[in-house]
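Notes from the pairing session

We agreed to fold both candidates in a single pass and log them together. This is the raw record for the first candidate, unedited. Please don't reformat it; downstream parsing expects exactly this layout.

Candidate A
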Amino acid sequence: MTIYTFATRLLLAFICGGIIGIERQIRQKNAGLRTNTLVALGSAAFILLSVCLTGTTGDPGRIASQIVTGVGFLGGGLILKDGFSVRGLNTAATIWCSASVGTFAGLGLTYQALIMVGFVIATHCLFRPLGFTIGKYFTSKEDNTNIYYSFRIRCKAQIENHIRVMMLNTISIDPHLQLRSLKSCDDDDPAYSFIKAEIFSTGKHDIVIEKLAAKLTIEYGVTQVNWEINGHCEE
């Protein structure tokens, strides 16, 4: 393999990985421009290494299979569990696709690499709004239950206002939740306060409520957080 061919294939991987990375960077994802470019470059470099060492007698497919395994570990590090939800799956899958683009580039399959880039970009740009639309449609069709949640929080008296403001701010940014009542009492112990809240929810949003409870639990001075469903009604 000539140095020109080597450099050209690496340049192809650099450009293709950069295109995918730019789209990811625009959306402010964890794996953005540099990560996707480096994954594509690295995959291409390993394929080129195999070709340089073995020439026409080797099997680049063996290196390609190891790239798939190695990138799988890299993608696993991007997947994070946040409460009841999992984040990073889409980013990990994108890294995997960038590796395949680099593999195509390393083998000199220019058109295949470019086609793969096109499909990756199309998946992000077209299926993202489509996924939101489908999710919103089926949520509105299947979840017509109004839920009444009740919160009971025990905290130190000096942070009572902070906790109340925190609850108000969290609930106000969620269009599905509405605060119906917010009361405080000391239960004959002036050092501690009990905050009681009634929250109305359009649809069942237990995960959101549990995240709010978890957020309150880790606040300094909060000793108890409980929530329950007080009632519901069908639309």
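Candidate B (folded immediately after A)
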Amino acid sequence: MAEQTLPPPSSQEQRWTEIEFLPAWSEEYYDVYTARKLGKWVMLKTLKKEFRDDPKYRAMIDKEFDVRYNLSHPNIVMINDYEDVPGLGRCIITDDVYGKSLRTLIDSGELEDKHYEQLRTRLPLAMEYIQQNHLAHHPIRPETIIFTENIGNLKLIDVGFDQKSRLCHSDTNDDVRSFGNVMKEVLRVTGRRDPAMARIADKAAGGGYRDVQALRLALENRSAKRFYIVAIIFLTLLVAALVWLSFNSPTK
């Protein structure tokens, strides 16, 4: 019997390889995949199968692409393209941010100092950028905060489904409350002792800061106070050492 020759893969099949479903990343209306596009790792976000043919939900993913396409911030997942992928339909294509969510790190006890420091410093910066661009988005939660696999950079996902002419106070205050709730959980579950941060997190969760700028100022003052305390301790020890040397140095 003659050997059967298979047809060569189509250009689309060659374009997309190693497509893998990520159930832990799925959202209410979307499924998320990791894949290689022309050999480069990317992430794919597409409507769940039951929503793909509904014009309302197709308009929703179209709008999310339009809203997020021009965003550019080191701590926000960037959108690269929007195209049809074989077997998945229309997909938003983002940078590869495969890694572990803050929820996973908390639950597994893997949260390290490098993660905590980025939550304290970079998360408010990402939130401020979102507000400056008047983006309406779902609440920031441990599930939407990702630390990339290789470098461990903080990345926010699910950062905007609409863009408004301006944000109202409740919109901006929700972000502050979200930050407070995230940090309170981090401190509670990990047992990390940081009294200053605990006070800021409690105040933020209760809506005690008018906006992210006020929250950032409180965080920066916390850092400044810590610096001054360390500087005072260092100077005190230095003076004590000089005094000791002056009394114990051999006389001529």
